[in-house]
Amino acid sequence: MTLQSIGLSTGGRDRAPEWEHYLKGDPALLNSELGDILDRDAVRLDIRTDDQVAYEALHHPDPMVREQSLYQAMDRRLPEAIDLIAESIATDENREVRWNALWALEKIGGPRALQIIERHVNDDDADVGEWAQLFSSELRTGLPAFDNRSFAWDSDRTFDETILLNIHCDVYVALDETGRNWGKISLAPQGLARSYGQAHACPNTDTRNQKLIISKTLSGLHEDGTPHTENFVFRGLTNHANAGRGSFYFESRGLRPIFLSGRADDDSLGHRNEMVAAKRSGEWTLDPRIQIRGESAIRYVRGRVHTWGYVNFDTMAGSSLEEVLFPGNSILGTLDTPTGPLANAFIVGTFKGKLVDWDGDDKVNVNSLDIYSTLDGDVDSDQDGVADIPGVQFCPRTNWMN
Ligand SMILES: [Ca+2]
Ligand SMILES: [Ca+2]
């Protein structure tokens, strides 16, 4: 399986636009999402044949590649995509593949996808079952639904909640400087986590309406086995007009190194320290049965994320997915000079995260995940609430900040 070289492609351009008239309303509102437009025009950079994609979705030994293949089948709108995804949910041994496959069905939507999702509401894995219940409810009503498990919460941890975010990211890369040729890489949640890191939303009840730490942990980058950490402080506003739900729009700007190698902690080509920006908007849902510090806990969050990227495309063409999706092979971009002109990727994604039972005792874990961040987003390797180095939110091992 290889990524396409520049200029050899057929792709999204062959497809007709999904709507052909403007009776729906004002195109200034309906047709201003650059990601939606690029989705129609961009060539797909994964050049595996459809048969390869279908085979690897069920049989590749690496769960990340299986999941990536399911999302690729969806992105290509393969006629057999729903059957493949249904087979994966029924047979895959990796629970994250299974719940991210359920999410893919929700994205496809329609009565057949709904029917397959609802087969799994009473799954042996309670969290796969709860995701099925949640996606089914969202498709039917727009709102999530949860099961009635009890919960476990630790009052000694830095964060009241640690919610693993499943993020599905579409990366649109300008293939040259004409602005006419774009490529698309659709990253399923485990592919994104492998290359970029696993993101966690870490809300605290007293500050969550205006401030949120997103902490990213990347395994497999440091030779000594310690995780690579990057934290982001998001700030914004939250609307509570609907009881039990909060709709939000948050932004983050933080100083971090841009490694010109395109790889985290690879300083071989040097780095520049820049303010890196990201935006997230969406809605969280409280569960009044889970009370922490006198407040209902956030049981579930969903939304969209947007940021900029720098993809070193020359080093990627002709590479396999496994060669490209390795730890650290992606960095956020910035629009600020002098690095800004390097930004060549428009990145849009959707995310979903809920409380999960991570240790199999049938209680959902509210804040059990290891998060290497202080309340202010500084790296905190020993999780004691005190920063390794005050003001430093990105792994300091390359000494980038000095
Ligand atoms: Ca548990
Ligand atoms: Ca510490």
UniProtKB/TrEMBL annotation:
Gene3D superfamilies: Leucine-rich Repeat Variant (1.25.10.10). The keyword DNA damage does not apply. Keywords: Lyase. It holds the Pfam family HEAT_2. One of its GO terms (molecular function) is lyase activity. Coiled coil: none annotated. SUPFAM superfamilies: ARM repeat. InterPro entries: ARM-like (IPR011989), ARM-type_fold (IPR016024), PBS_lyase_HEAT (IPR004155). This is PBS lyase HEAT domain protein repeat-containing protein. It comes from Salinispora tropica (strain ATCC BAA-916 / DSM 44818 / JCM 13857 / NBRC 105044 / CNB-440).
